[in-house]
Amino acid sequence: MGLREMKKQQTRQAISHQATRLFLRHGFDRVTIADVAAAAQVAKMTVTNYFPRKEDLALDLHEEFVAQPARTVAGRAPGESALAALRRAFLDAVDRRDAVIGFSGADFARMITGSPALVARLREFHEEREHALAAVLAEEAGTGPDDVVVRVASAQLIGVHRVLFEETLRRTIAGEDHDAIAAALTGSAEKAFGLLEPSLEDYAVRR
């Protein structure tokens, strides 16, 4: 990373940090872009250049969140199905207490669930990752992303991730610590992915 890229990354991180601090203190809906710009000591235009939507200031892992399932499937091992790869990757993320699957503090989880705007933006994230996964599956199958099998498979696989993400937030807000959440999620993930085995166990197996 060059000096210019490093400076841009530092500016982005500073804006995100100040935004999160303000959101947690005052609530997402009460904080403006101008408030964030003032706290980060940058112009409003600088904030919107890095974060075109206010919601993305609070949900700064957008790119990783959307890309993770598709990248996991694209990089799966020979003989491994899409279902098996996603289950393996999710359980690995649980072991790491990965923020991308929902591990956060209770204040942050309450901020997300308490804001209709953030709940709606998260819904868009899940839809985007479903489309990204469908694109990978369609390319490998030699079909279009509108193929009904591709669409249904992607919807089911991302649906499991959405349900488990919501469980993580719910347990966080309830006051459970990360270890307790991880133990519960492991069991829930095995059940949820297991429900898909009759239809997807042999689907999209890497040659």
TrEMBL record:
The cross-references to Pfam families, in alphabetical order and at most eight, read:
TetR_C_14, TetR_N
- Highest taxon above the source species: Bacteria
* Keywords per UniProt: DNA-binding, Transcription, Transcription regulation
Presence of the UniProt keyword Heme in the record: no
Under the heading PROSITE patterns, the entry gives: HTH_TETR_2 (PS50977)
Look up keyword DNA-binding and say if it applies. Answer: yes
Q: Which residues bind DNA?
A: 32-51
The residues covered by the HTH tetR-type domain are: 9-69
PANTHER family, per the entry: HTH-TYPE TRANSCRIPTIONAL REGULATOR BETI, HTH-TYPE TRANSCRIPTIONAL REGULATOR RUTR
Q: What is this protein called?
A: TetR family transcriptional regulator
Record organism: Actinomadura physcomitrii
